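Reference record:
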Amino acid sequence: MIKGVLFDAGGTLIRMKPGSDEIMYDMIQRYKITKEEFFRAFKEARKYRYRVYSKDSYSAFIQSILMKLGIEGEIGKKQYVVLMERAKFIRYPETLEVLKNLSRNYILGVISNWDLELNLDSIFEELRIRKYFSVIVVSKDIKISKPDPGIFLEALKKINLTPHQCFYIGDDPYEDFYGANNLGFISILIDRGNRYGELECPKIRDLREIYAYLEKDSFL
């Protein structure tokens, strides 16, 4: 029987507006880098972000993008400060509705690879969704990042559930879907932009599509 529904945070429940990629591109305009060049470098660096930089800071991630673009100088930390000053978060349109509905019947939680200095609990409070979660586990606090089983197990320990009793929803195939699925969660990939159309796994485009899966209770 399903008792818990756990979520990733960024890209699943909330998003930065404008996006970190948009803010970063705006900051390097003086280097005459084209949009195509920047977003190609950003996308490539993001693939390996938590595999390479999980024990480092977000500024190191920014610095890796600048290096790929041939921009010299250690300016990642400076750009990170600007990014944090400009960063604002919003809920996805359906997030509040879904959390309200699910909280009536399930234990809810968040497992996030969150390495920003901004406090995720505080962001959730501002967005009026913190009260729905029984547990929030972030990589910055426990020094473990998805897809490492340790971060998932830490959340389960706090709510006294097993992987087979929980759904897990996230937007990254490597960190979220396979990380949770390999541990025994009923895992679903949220693919809002249809970026992973070729990937054969349970996918949704909107959090409200979770309801159909939960009605089956278990579909594996």
